[in-house]
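Protocol step 4 of 6: structure prediction from sequence.
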Amino acid sequence: MAMCLFIPFSVLPIRRRWYEIFLIGHIVLAILAIVGSYWHIVHLYKHQSGFDLFIYSTMGIWGFDRLMRMARATKNGVKRAYVSKVDDEYIRVDIPGVEGHGYCFAYFPTLSWRPWENHPFSIINYTRNLPDEEGSSTPASCSGTESPSSPGAASLQSSFEKSVAVRTKVPGHIATRNRRDGGISMFMRVQNGMTKKLARMAGVVTGIPVLVEGSYGHEGNTFLQGHDSKFAPSLKYPNTLCIAGGAGISAVMPALGQCLSIYGRKGSTKLYWGLRSRELVDAVESSIVGPDGETANWGEIETHISVGSRLNVRRILEEELDQVSAGTTVIVCGPLAMCDEVRYTVAALARHGKVVRLVEESLPW
C-alpha cells in the first residue's frame, strides 16, 4: 500500500502546491514500505529463504543516501542567508562562504517547526561581485572588447563575472564578507510556504541560519560523469541559444558562462529573456540592457529582453536557426508552457533538417 501511494503523492500538482507534504510524505512512505516488507518476509519465511537479504540491502542503500545527504548539508556548516526584496513577486537570497553551481537544496531550520524541510533552488555565483558599499552598484560592462590587462579570453571571463552585479541594496558588512569569502545567490518567486516565510525576512541585517546541500547539476565532475558540461559549446554545436522566463534566468546563467570557452567564441551566443518585472532585470544584471534600448551585448552574448510581453518562441527559434550553419544548443528554463513550446518547436525543426539539441531546465519540481 505504501508503495502504491508513492504515485499519487508524487504528481506535479501536489509537488507544486504542497511541496512540504510531498517531502515528508515521501520519507514516511519509504520507511513504511521498507519496514512493512521486512515483517512481511519474516512472517512468511522466518529468515529461512534469504529474501530478507534484499530488504537489508535496500535499507543499506536508502540509509546511505540519507546519511550522504546529511553529510553534504553539513559539510559547509551553518551559514547565514541574507534576504532582499527584488519586487512584489521575487526575492533574492545571498549566502556568503558557499561555493556551488547548478542547483542546491537549502534548509532553513528556524523558519518553521520542520527543520528537515529543504527546497531546490538554482544557483548564481556572485563571488567578488557585490558592491563595496551599501546601496552602490558594481560598474556595468556591456563591452566585449579586450581589456588592457587581460586580453583575449580573460576579458570575456571578466565580462561574465560582472554579469551578476546588482542594483539592489546590500548592507556593507555583507558585501565585504561576500567579497572575501565568495558565495552564491538565488532568485526565488514568492509563493506560499517557505518562500513566503523567506520574504518576511527581507532586510534582516543579521540574516537567518541556513544549511546548503549540494551542489548538483550542470558541471560533470564525478567519475561517471567525466568533466564535460552539457552546456559547453563544441565543434559540432558551437552556437548557443538561451531562452528564459522570469526567474528561469538563474538556471541558464551557467550556460552563458560555458559559452566563454574556445568553441563558444567561434559560434554565436544569444539570450532571450521574457519577464513581467523590470526590477528583476536590474537585480540580476545591471548591464544586461543598454541605456537606450532593449538589447545590448553582454560580453560576446547578444541579449534580448522582453518586459511585460510574452516571447514569440516559434519565431525566435525559426529565425535564429535559419541564420546559422553549424549546430545549435537550445537551452530553456521557465514556465511549463514556454518549455513545452520550445520543445515542440525544436523537435519540428530537427525533423526538417536543422542541427539542434535541446537542454531543458524545468522550474517545477
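Step 5 (inspection) to follow. The chain has three domains: 2-74, 79-216, 239-360.
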